[in-house]
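Hi, does anyone understand the following?
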Amino acid sequence: EPTVRTELMEQIPPIAIFLQESRPKFPTAFFEYLMPIVVRYLTDVNNQVRKAGQEALLILLEQDLVTQSDIENKVCPILLDLSAPDSDDEYKVEAVNIICKMASMLSRTTVEHMLLPRFCELCSDGKLFQVRKICAANFGDICNAVGQEATERLLIPKFFELCSDSVWGMRKACAECFMAVSYTTSPEIRRSKLSPLFISLISDTCRWVRQAAFQSLGPFISTFANPSSAGLYIREDGTLSIRPSMEDVNSNSCQRSNSITLMSSSTNAA
């Protein structure tokens, strides 16, 4: 029964955490018994079972419970098969979604060598716009996962393709993640390539794309600032934040010091 398999998948993460905490007693139980089940259910015939398996896999990755060898030898090959050009449409959409979510949890080497080539192929998928939409929506995360060199060499050309896609939703998704992509590139690439590209989005024929671009304008401009002087940086969740300057930190510490001095003076006077 699919409901039984779905329920089983939901219990895998807490069992895995228990086995990890009790590893001296169960040194190989997770790798021998549980991990093969998770991998197998990624290709289950039932949609709900596959979804539960994908969620379980992400939790296991977040908890750092899956070994590098299992990721490279068991998980990635399955995802590459599911996202192959001749794969079933539903499986392909699910696979690209899980690849994008996994990228931030894996090592840069694994992402670049095993998943990045397939991601670049999926960005140009002419059959399913849903696949391209997922790639566009997660483009900034993939750039952050592989770093500047791979982004400029492999991803920026694909980003240009998506920014000129015939489906306006694709262009809107690109506008929304523009800051994250820009932050991963060099100042020269920002100035010479991304700036003209951003202007094309701001001038887009679709008002939803233009609106998304204008909302990203400030964050995009912020990527041109020197982080050490402007105090701007990107958090792990991809949002823009401001790091207080040393002057502010020193000022706050001085104020705290003065207040402590005043408090101790008043205490002595009492």
Notes: The radius of gyration is 24 Å. DSSP finds 15 helices and two strands in the chain. Residues 256-270 have pLDDT under 50 and may be disordered.
